[in-house]
Structures are given as C-alpha cells and as structure tokens.
Amino acid sequence: MNRTARFIISMLAAIALAFPAFAHCGQHCCHDCDDCGAGCDGCGHHTMQSRRAAQSASTPAVEQSREGKVVEVIYLPGAASDSGMVEARLMAGSQQILVRLAPSGFLHRNQMDICEGDTLTVTGYWVAAGGRETLVATQMAKGGQTVPLRDGWGRSAW
User: Fold this and answer.
1) Helix, strand, or coil (residue 37)
2) Among 63, 82, 81, which Cα is nearest to 121's?
3) CB contact at 8 A, 52 and 124
4) Which of 55, 74, 95, 156 would you call most buried, defined as having the most Cβ atoms within 10 angstroms of its Cβ?
5) Per the confidence metrics, is the pTM higher than 0.85?
C-alpha cells in the first residue's frame, strides 16, 4: 500500500472515531456545557447510552409524564441532515425541563415537527446530563396524535 493510501485510511479512521464527539461538542456545547462549566467531557450527552446500558436489562426505567409548552427547540447535529437529535425545553408549570425527543427525520416522517409555542405531552425516564436532569422521551403527544419514540429500556423506534 502506498504512502498516500495509508494516510487517507488513517485520516478516515481518525475522523470516524472522533466524529461522535466532534458532532456533539463542535456544534452546540454552548447551550449545555458552558452552563454547567464542566466542558464537553462532563456535559452528559455522551453518557446517556452508557447510563441506560448500566441499568439492568430485565428492569425497564421508571417513566413519568409531563405536559408543557415548548420554549426552545434544539437541533443537535447528526451524520445526515435528518438524523440529528431534537431536544426541546418545555415550560411545565413553573419548571423548565429539557426533553430528548428523536431524530428530526423520524419526527417529520411521523408528522410531529415541533415549534416554539407547541404544547407537548411527553412520557419518559430521567437521566443526569451535565449536572441537570434530562427527560428522555419514550412517547410524545401533540395535537391529539401520539407517537412512540423508545421502549421502556430505551431502545429507539426509529
């Protein structure tokens, strides 16, 4: 194998290994990491899957439901234009909560695009993220339509 081919392969491998962290931290850390002061290693978005994996495979997460008005829609980057995760800040009573929903393409295919001002009812489980609690939605309802997003163990519907 020539020198150029080895260089290209090593660069592609490095990008593939670094992409999840870059896609997260290189694009939106300002909204969570700066708030908690922990930097990208402590923001919690990288740990959601590891927290779910640590939970017993025979015990689903305890779910809670919340209803609230969307005050902010956050589009996290993804590998493709429709694969980026969507999060929403909801005003539920006097409390603002961060909700992890689903990839933007999945929501769009299910006619569940969201905007600021929409009222959502979400059911999900809580995880620690950057020193804050985030509700990972297993189900989302808007305007009389309900869409399952994950099962009780956190496995996605998309």
Assistant:
1) coil
2) 63
3) no
4) 74
5) no
